[in-house]
Amino acid sequence: MIARGYQRSIDFAYLGRAPTPPLAVGPPPAAVRRGADLDRAGAHALQNLAFAEIPNTSPVTRADFDAGLASPTAWPAATSSWHAADGRCVGFMLGVREPDHGVIDAVGVDPAWRGRGLGRAIVADVLAVAAAEGLPEVRAVIASTNAASLALHHRAGFVERARKELWDLAW
Ligand SMILES: CC(C)(COP(=O)(O)OP(=O)(O)OC[C@H]1O[C@@H](n2cnc3c(N)ncnc32)[C@H](O)[C@@H]1OP(=O)(O)O)[C@@H](O)C(=O)NCCC(=O)NCCS
C-alpha cells in the first residue's frame, strides 16, 4: 500500500457493550426531557448542526432522514429527541435494530448543551431499551478522530471489538 502511494487517513473503531448493567446517570441538565414522540424536524436540524464539525460526514436531506426512519432496520423504541424546557430539541438518538444487536447509528447534542451529561443520558436510554427487548449487545462505529464520541462511549462502558483502517490514494 505504502509503495503504491497510499496513506492511512482515519480509522473506524467498532465498539460494543452489553445493555446490562444499566448506565448510571445524574439528573438531566436543566430539565431536559426525552420527548414522548420523535420531533423529526428538530432532530433532523440538530443532526446536521451537530455533525457539521465532524469530518467525513455530510448534511442529510430531510427525505433521507425520513427514509432512514422508515427503513426495515429502524429502531423506533430507541430513536428519540430530547427537549429543553422551551421545547427546543437539544439532543437526539437514531437507533438501528439488527436481529441480534442494537446500533447507535447517530447521537448528537446541541453544542450549547454539551458537557453536562446529556449525551450519557441518551446512551443510557438506548441501553435500557435494548435491555427491555432482551438484546445482548449495543454497538457503535466511531471515527478515530471523534474524541468526544469516543469519550462518551468509552465512559459508558463500550469497548473496542474491531477497527477498520482507511487508506487514501492522493489523486
Ligand atoms: C458526542 C456528543 C454526543 C457528547 O455529548 P455530551 O452531552 O457533550 O456528552 P456528556 O456531557 O454526556 O459526556 C459524556 C462523557 O464524555 C466525555 N466527553 C464529552 N465530550 C468530550 C470531549 N470533547 N473530550 C473529551 N471527553 C469528552 C465527558 O467528559 C463525559 O465523561 P464522564 O462521564 O467521565 O464525565 C457530542 O459531543 C456531540 O453531539 N458531538 C457531535 C456529534 C457526534 O460526534 N456524535 C457521535 C457520532 S455518532
Specify the helix fraction band: 25-40%
User: What is the CATH top level name?
Assistant: Alpha Beta
Radius of gyration: 17 Å
> End-to-end distance, in Å?
14 Å
Distinct ligands: coenzyme A
Q: Mind describing the biggest β-sheet?
A: 7 strands, mixed
Helix-strand pattern, N to C?
EEHHEEEHEHE
Shape field: globular
- What number of domains? 1
| The CATH topology | Aminopeptidase
State which percent range the strand residues make up: 25-35%
Look at the helices and sheets and give the structural class. Answer: alpha+beta
Task: Give me the side-by-side strand order of the main sheet.
Answer: 2-3-4-5-6-1-7
Superfamily at the CATH H level? Gcn5-related N-acetyltransferase (GNAT)
Number of strands: 7
Give start-end ranges of low-pLDDT stretches: none
Second rung of CATH, namely the architecture: 3-Layer(aba) Sandwich
Query: Could you report the average pLDDT, rounded to the nearest whole number?
Result: 96
Number of helices: 4
